[in-house]
Design a protein that fits this description.
Helix content is about 40%, strand content about 15%. By secondary structure, it is an alpha/beta fold. Helix 1 (about 35-45) packs across helix 11, helix 5 crosses helix 11 and helix 11 (about 270-285) packs across helix 12 (about 290-305). The radius of gyration is 20 Å and the shape is globular. The structure holds NADPH dihydro-nicotinamide-adenine-dinucleotide phosphate (NDP). NADPH dihydro-nicotinamide-adenine-dinucleotide phosphate (NDP) binds near residues 144 and 267.
């Protein structure tokens, strides 16, 4: 097969050099994406070097235009640029459309320009699957009402959950989320609630999954989680509840639930799996998930040692 007709030909520019790829955000210097993405490229024998660029919101449009001129392959997009990526893309996947945020862009000039996707949805579901958890017919609770929570709620409802209580510090943000996502899933009971358990209409309902999708663990890592563990699993908890924190490491949420929990996981696997899905979308090749997870865990433990 000639190079022009191989499936990977589109990964290269006309002059044969690899099309650039990487992650943008602000700040960006702590991003783990280069660690696991470079392993995915290397394991697939591709010469690409996945980069990390610091881009402020006011620089985003110009960066995207330059990247288009330079024939980039794609980009991962992190805070605070996910909404801008969604707005400025030429076309969006259904997930990205519903969530109002994109974490992955693919440049396809033949299709009209930048295409936007949200691989947080699939990354989250893959991470649940790795824990042997299936949302089908399950009652669940999601704490937080930002972009990550939207991805989680969309994923759970799409996978057949029957109930999703969206609990948030600002009730109006939870209500807005429900207003946006619930119309896609009439079969799922999705409702908003404030942080205070005394005001929860669903307190007696046992829940098999509780997800922390707040940024509390990043912003205030030393503080206590704002909801007491006793309330998180529901009053009739059967101890089979899976507690899932989107933030990784030793978080206030995981500290609150761990003594109580049969299963508690952090967001590292989701981070790697959303990256694996982005890699597969850009390249059409299989991402080596296990190896990607392994190098990321190793990089984190080395970071811990160097502190
Ligand atoms: P947003 O800024 O969009 O939303 C933050 C949410 O956290 C809001 O609901 C906010 O409440 C709530 N919040 C912030 N501080 C507190 C607090 N002290 N107490 C209670 N609630 C609080 O962030 P994202 O949705 O984009 O991200 C949320 C988290 O998920 C981040 O930590 C991010 O790193 C993580 N994440 C992990 C991913 C992974 O792959 N593992 C992927 C994507 C995100 P309010 O509405 O009241 O302001």
């Amino acid at each position: 097969m000639s190079e022009a007709t191989t499936p990977t030909a589109r990964l290269y520019r006309a002059d044969g050099s690899p099309r650039p790829v990487g992650v943008i955000g602000y700040p960006i210097n702590h991003s783990l994406s280069p660690v696991f993405q470079n392993v995915a490229f290397a394991e697939n024998h591709l010469p690409h070097h996945y980069e990390r660029w610091e881009v402020k919101p006011e620089e985003f449009s110009a960066f995207l235009e330059k990247a288009r001129q330079e024939d980039f392959l794609g980009l991962n997009v992190t805070l605070p640029l996910k909404r801008l990526a969604w707005e400025q893309a030429f076309a969006r996947s259904q997930e990205a459309d519903a969530i109002g945020a994109a974490n992955t862009l693919l440049l396809d000039d033949a299709a009209g320009g930048w295409l936007a996707h949200n691989t947080d949805v699939g990354g989250f579901l893959d991470a649940l699957h790795a824990e042997d958890y299936n949302p089908l017919k399950q009652r669940t609770m999601v704490i937080g009402a930002g972009g990550a929570s939207r991805a989680v709620v969309f994923g759970l409802a799409g996978a057949g959950a029957v109930e999703i209580a969206v609990v948030n510090r600002s009730f109006e943000n939870a209500a807005a989320l429900v207003g946006e996502i619930a119309p896609y899933f009439p079969q799922c009971n999705i409702y908003a609630a404030p942080l205070d358990p005394a005001a929860w209409p669903f307190n007696r309902n046992p829940r098999t999954l509780v997800v922390n999708a707040t940024s509390q663990g990043i912003l205030s890592p030393g503080e206590e989680f704002p909801i007491a563990a006793d309330y998180l699993a529901g009053r009739d908890a059967d101890r089979r509840t899976l507690f899932f924190d989107l933030t990784y490491g030793d978080t206030p949420f995981l500290r609150a639930v761990r003594s109580d929990a049969a299963q508690a996981v952090d967001g590292l696997s989701m981070l790697v799996y959303q990256g694996a899905l982005a890699f597969e979308w850009w390249t059409g090749l299989a991402a080596p998930r296990e190896k990607m997870l392994q190098v990321t865990q190793q990089a984190l433990s080395e970071r811990g040692k160097s502190k």
